[in-house]
Amino acid sequence: MMPVPMVGRAAALEELRRAWTRVQHTGRAVPAVVTGLPGTGKTTLAAAALQAIDPDRVVRGSARLHTPAPYDWLAAALAGRDVTGLPVPRDALSWLAQDPDVPRERYTPEALLRIAVATVRALVDCGPAVLVVEDLHALDPASLTLIAELAGADVPALLLVTSQPPDAAVSPLLTSRTLARLSGAPGAVRQHLGSLDAEQVRQVLSQVYADHEVTPRMAASVWRRTGGNPYRLSELIAVEGSGGPGALAGEPGDAPATDLTAREREVLGCLVEGMSNKQIAAALGISVRTVTVHVSNLLRKTGAPSRTAVALWAVQRNITEGAAS
Ligand SMILES: Nc1ncnc2c1ncn2[C@@H]1O[C@H](COP(=O)(O)OP(=O)(O)OP(=O)(O)O)[C@@H](O)[C@H]1O
Ligand SMILES: [Mg+2]
């Protein structure tokens, strides 16, 4: 099965591309803030934007803990980088990078903020670069201050920020202030991602199941099961999707009854009667293990998601004759 394709975000992607053009023309930091509830596709959109923009320089960080240390975004961005040439005081840089051997802070908060900005500026260099800030809502206050400070600064970078709404944040007030400050910067882009609608769910299903017909009814049913949330949709496809879109919709599959062997039809008849595997085994004089094999074959062939669904499928097609009862 192919991975779930991104649908319904073409306009958002185009807007992010235009923001990148503004960075290139103005040489200033342009924030692009993407918010949305969990699983609405913020990270996916940011990744697609990065791929479309294909910048030479990317500086990326995200909150790594529930209660991250100060400047955790910057520490994450510095991790694994060669920082020897950066024009900032070595001990301050070590502290910002969370070097465990640096005992304590010898700078005032204001000085640290200036050094943090200078560090980002040095990382961006002549740019243009993309600064990726994933999950701003989970960042520490010092990182939020740094990100806000960068908005609109003369740093040639797209400040690509994803965040859940402030009420989910570690510091809701500071998060909402930071989001407001970012959104208010010149040329800033502000996008709020909602759920997919039933037609967009149908588009996802049609691409994943290219060899099936996905009817609007199936799409509506999958939309109801997932609320159109892209994360829930992709999970549903991964967990229950092997039987085709009809199975996801809770509908019986469209396998022709002739695909079933005589023994499978007998087992199917027993399922319609509501018998357990043990009862079926006794009724047909076969082992319980053999029954389970027949049942899983029936599920696979019909695309039904459960024993009950396969029984319903049989009743609807009136194909239970031959069952032992
Ligand atoms: N536009 C889309 N169309 C189809 N599937 C999508 C879309 N956006 C995201 N998905 C799928 O939904 C899942 C969740 O997406 P993603 O991780 O981007 O969400 P998120 O908003 O970043 O979530 P979180 O708030 O947890 O960080 C992924 O499996 C992704 O492939
Ligand atoms: Mg995400």
Mean pLDDT: 90
Please write the string of helix (H) and strand (E) elements.
HEHEHHHEHEHEHHHHHHHH
State the helix count.
15
- Give the strand order of the largest sheet, numbering strands 1, 2, ... along the chain: 2-3-4-1-5
Please give the radius of gyration in angstroms: 28 Å
The shape, in one word, is elongated
Class inferred from helices and paired strands? alpha/beta
Strand content: 5-15%
Name the quaternary structure: single chain
What is the distance, rounded to the nearest whole angstrom, between the alpha carbons of the first and last residues?
Answer: 39 Å
Low-confidence stretches: none
Number of strands: 5
Largest sheet geometry? 5 strands, parallel
Helix content: 40-55%
The kinds of small molecule bound in this structure are: adenosine-5'-triphosphate, magnesium ion
Task: Summarize the entry for a quick read.
This protein is an alpha/beta fold and 325 residues long.
Q: Helices and strands in order, then pairings?
A:
Blueprint: H1 10-26, E1 30-36, H2 42-53, E2 57-62, H3 72-78, H4 90-96, H5 109-124, E3 129-134, H6 141-150, E4 157-163, H7 172-183, E5 189-193, H8 198-208, H9 216-226, H10 230-240, H11 245-248, H12 262-272, H13 277-284, H14 288-302, H15 307-317
Parallel strand pairs: 1-4, 1-5, 2-3, 3-4
The structure holds adenosine-5'-triphosphate (ATP) and magnesium ion.
